[in-house]
Amino acid sequence: MMKAVVALMKKDLKLLFKDKMAVFFTFIFPLLFAFFFGSIFSSSGGSQGLKIAVSDRDQTEKSQAFIGQLKEASEFRVTETDEANAKKLVRTGKQVAFIILPEGFGENYGGIFSGQPPEILVGIDPARKAEAGYLEGSLMKLGIKRFELAFSDANEMIKQLDFSIEDIQQSDDMPAEWKSLLGDYLPKFKELTELEIAKQPEGSDSSGLSFGSDGDNPMMPLKITKEEITVQKTGPRNSFSITIPQGVIWAIMGCVIGFAISLVREKTLGTLDRLAIAPISRTQILAGKALGCFAAQAMVVTLLFTIAYFMLGVRFDLIKLVLAVLAAGICFVGFMMFFASITKTEQSVAGMTNAFLIIMGMIGGAMIPLFAMPGWMQSISHISPVKWAILAFEGAIWRDFTYIEMMTPLTILTAIGVVTFFIGTRMLKLKQS
Amino acid sequence: MIEVRGISKRYGNLQAVDNLSITIEKGHIFGLLGPNGAGKSTTISMMCGLINPDQGQVLLNGNAPGIKETKHKIGLIPQSIALYEELTALDNLSFFADLYNLPASQKAERMEWSLAFVGLQDRAKDAVQDFSGGMKRRLNLAASLLHDPEFIFMDEPTAGVDPQSRNKLFESVFELKALGKTIIYTTHYMEEAEKLCDRVGVVDKGQLLALGTVDELIEQYGGESRVHIKSEQGEESFMTANPVNDLMTRLKGLTTVENLSLQRPNLETVFLNLTGKQLRD
Predict the structure, then answer these.
(1) A334 in a domain, yes or no?
(2) Which of A150, A171, A199 is the C-terminal boundary of a domain?
């Protein structure tokens, strides 16, 4: 009994390897897919900074210092230019945003206790919400540095206090209570600062003034003590850990399409009649087809994961991976049988299988990784067997699924496979008889 | 022996085969003659167990065709080229031999015999897709003979075949008969039926219209012969049931005969007389 089934499997694999296009789409294309997108994702992994154009209307020492901070910040890649060109660069999409430092920026940047906060003008496409949020956060971070600078350097502090005392005295719109309070407080604070400077040894730096304490500056917004902790990384080891399961899905889909076509072709050629006339049961014929499809899937998956392991640094739990391969194999063999049973010609089975699997692949994460999909699409992806297959592979590669967690995708895949296989074989037998 | 007892098959509104009964003796070549769509392929499919009849019964040596023991005795040459064209002739034969679970020694021997039988031993390692239409037909036959079947069903085996391959195929049919095989041969070519078959069943619209040897059918349903004479007295044509006697009588009064032809009835006229239409309509 097994001899006939194995003969059928061997014949189908021979036919598969004789078809250069089928070999390309089953073995080569998935590898190229995984390698190509894996390389793209890995090369774009490190942040290269937001591209911004900066124009300085103020042209003061403070404004130039701020631009210097922008240039040094890893969050940005700065192009300093005139205002018109800065706007043009953003309009034409060459830069993400422009920043203009208006007149008075430097004066307000220095004022801590009085005056207005330093204003900057930012221009960004409203559609780029993510970049806008990132830009705002990064600029605020730099803004905080002016407080740090003022409070950490005593001489700078004296300058700030002199400037503020004079500004308050000349101010007409400040409420009297505030004017009185600050007029009384700031001169005393200046005296205290000068006293602390006097205590410093001759020639020492005025930064990091201790104000009588044991080295900590009470005026600093926060004292941060850093401790280096190596965080255990969860998630994919590299981008290939994501693209290899996607490539495997494309390979499996290639097998399904190829074998569904070959089964329909047996009908149209008349070879199915030859098989039916032979002393083997219809169940054996279909089992031979299923085994051929499964063997082809197993071969291509083994090839891809071997390359992934030795050449692309992808690591996996072998037992969980084998379970995933088995469940995905059962599922897609079932689909192969189902599609072959409901179609009559090679063209119709190719069209229908392609359309179905590509849609399932799109919503199931074979193109865009599942974790990168918006929430609503992740919900829709539940209906796709591709999603569960990818989840099973990822569970064995980088999601660190326990065996209990693996059960969900494995059970769903197996159940889909059994149901579609049963329906497919029943329909094929009915049609034949 | 093959016994077909009142088999019928309906597809929707089409009565493909209607209460057809035949008995075929061992070692005979039996022809099913009829136009396209007459029900020949459906009949042959039921006879070899590919499809089940709605009514009636088929027995091959007293057994149903679908059982495993009987399947070993059946060889089917389908109407289409039922081969894997990407594979070589040897690969095809090896695969079909494996389906019959032939032991390794017997398998090699039978493959060699089959290829030699159809004259393709020199092309054994070539892909079928590189074969001519006639060669494919011959390999189609070889693939059905690997397991040395007793009953050989040939469904229009000469469709699309060149004259040379057709003659080779005819020789093969006679050789198989000489080996004691029982052959069921469907065709819509009356020349093939006349040349090959011991007995012929004429079918149309799923019904068996007549059954017998070629001579019996012609005698029974062929009608009269047509005689045409051109002499010094002019041209004359007439129909006669006894052409030899009638011709002798007419020729007695003539001194010069320029042209004389005698057209005897054949299976074409049998079919015409039975159905009122040409065999290839």
Answers:
(1) yes
(2) A199
CA distance A432 to B15: 18
Question: What CA–CA distance (Å, rounded) separates A19 from A7?
Answer: 19
pLDDT at A411: 96
* CA-based nearest residue in chain A for residue B92: A11
Q: What share of chain A is helix, strand, coil (3-state, %, to 5)?
A: 70, 5, 25
Token output for A152: 């950490």
CA-wise closest residue to B137 among B115, B121, B114, B160:
B160
Q: Considering CB atoms only, which of A11, A271, A280 is closest to B82?
A: A271
A334 has pLDDT over 70: yes
Tell me if A216 is assigned to some domain.
no
Q: CA angle, corner A57, sides to A129 and A169, nearest 5? A: 105
A145-157 tens-digit pLDDT: 777 666 667 777 7
Asked if B96 lies within 8 A of A278 by C-beta distance, the reply is yes
Element (H, E) at B209: strand B207-212
Angle CA(A105)–CA(A107)–CA(A109) in degrees, nearest 5?
65
To the nearest whole Å, the CA of B195 is away from the closest chain A CA by: 27
Ranges of each domain in chain B: 2-218, 224-264
Chain A nearest CA to B9, separation (Å) = 12
Phi and psi at B226, nearest 5°, equal -105, 130
Q: Which strand ranges, in their side-by-side order, compose the sheet holding B207-212? A: B74-77, B151-155, B182-187, B29-33, B199-204, B207-212
Residues A15 and A70 reside in one and the same domain = no
**What ipTM was predicted for this assembly?**
0.82
A15 with B83: Cβ contact below 8 A: no
Measured between CA atoms, the residue of chain A closest to residue B143 is: A274
Best CA proximity match to B19, nearest among B37, B34, B39:
B39
Write out pLDDT tens, residues B6-36: 999 999 889 999 999 999 999 999 999 888 8
The domain in which residue A120 lies consists of 50-199
10 Å CB burial of residue A332 (0-12, 13-18, 19+) is: buried
Distance separating alpha carbons of residues A187 and A206, to the nearest angstrom: 19
| The pLDDT value given to residue A112 | 63
Average pLDDT over residues B176-198: 91
Work out the minimum CA distance from B92 to partner chain A, whole angstroms.
Answer: 9
Task: Using the CB atoms, write b or e for A200-227: b if 16+ within 10 Å.
Answer: eeeeeebeebeeeeeeebeeeeeeeeee
Residues A279, A156: one domain?
no
Nearest to B201 by CA among B10, B16, B6, B24: B24
Q: Specify whether A410 is located in the same domain as A324.
A: yes
Contact list in A for residue B98 (CB cut-off 8 A) is 3-4, 7
Is A70 in the same domain as A24? no
> What does the longest C-alpha to C-alpha distance in chain A come to?
110
On whether residue A174 sits in a domain, the answer given is: yes
Q: Is residue A211 part of a domain?
A: no
Q: Report how far residue B11's alpha carbon sits from residue B26's, in angstroms, rounded to the nearest whole number.
A: 31
Q: Which amino acid is at B265?
A: P
Q: May I ask the CATH architecture of the domain B2-218?
A: 3-Layer(aba) Sandwich (3.40)
Chain B residue at shortest CA distance from A284: B99
- In this structure, the answer to whether residues A169 and A309 fall within a common structural domain is no
Q: Give the model's confidence band at A331: pLDDT under 50 very low, under 70 low, under 90 confident, else very high.
A: very high
Query: Hey, are the CB atoms on B101 and A15 less than 8 Å from each other?
Result: no
Chain B: which residues have CB within 8 Å of chain A?
A: 45, 48-52, 68, 71-72, 74, 76, 78-84, 86-87, 91, 95-96, 98-101, 143-144
CA distance B159 to chain A (A): 15
Please tell me the distance in Å from B269's CA to the nearest CA on chain A: 33
